[in-house]
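Colleagues,

For the teaching module next term, I've prepared a clean inverse folding example: a structure given as tokens, and then the sequence designed for it. I'd like students to try predicting residues themselves before seeing the answer, so please don't circulate the second half yet.
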């Protein structure tokens, strides 16, 4: 059936399907371009692979979600109530994940500043407890140290931003104590 013989409703449907297909293709293309650009940027950064992969994954999801919103708008659905609902939902999610996000950002700062590296012996005082140990892993959420007693301690990365940290030089055997005012 030639296009000239389509009814106005059928023509509108063909146009909407074409818009959806074009939007899907554009969304996919933007996600690919963004991923390639971020990978080139990450080649020049010292971030661990897990952080880079997480950022890539989140950026793709954001592009796909925006693409879905555009498709829904092209189809003529009113998005006002959906956007208001998602706004309230995002506030609830941000409160629920604030500690995780704080630790992730702190982890990026710890890695960027290079205050300590894997293999270094560090000391940090948190809430009256003194943690001394060798750094065995610096993760996105936490840093793992192993004490002289063989204990494995997971320290949230936000502690390194808000508490004093001492990197013990190799060969320094004496215990480092907190300076107390006289």
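(Answer key — instructors only)
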């Amino acid at each position: 059936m030639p296009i000239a013989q389509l009814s106005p409703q059928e023509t509108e449907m063909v146009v909407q399907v074409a818009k959806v297909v074009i939007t899907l293709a554009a969304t996919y293309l933007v996600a690919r371009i963004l991923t390639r650009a971020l990978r080139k940027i990450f080649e020049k950064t010292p971030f661990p692979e897990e952080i880079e992969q997480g950022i890539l994954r989140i950026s793709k999801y954001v592009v796909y979600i925006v693409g879905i919103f555009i498709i829904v708008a092209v189809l003529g659905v009113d998005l006002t109530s959906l956007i208001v609902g998602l706004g309230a939902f995002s506030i609830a999610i941000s409160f629920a994940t604030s500690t995780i996000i704080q630790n992730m950002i702190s982890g990026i700062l710890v890695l960027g500043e290079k205050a300590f590296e894997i293999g270094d012996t560090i000391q940090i005082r948190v809430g009256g407890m003194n943690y001394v140990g060798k750094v065995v892993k610096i993760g996105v959420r936490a840093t793992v140290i192993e004490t002289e007693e063989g204990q494995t301690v997971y320290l949230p990365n936000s502690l390194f931003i808000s508490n004093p940290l001492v990197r013990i030089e190799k060969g320094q055997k004496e215990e480092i104590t907190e300076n107390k005012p006289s």
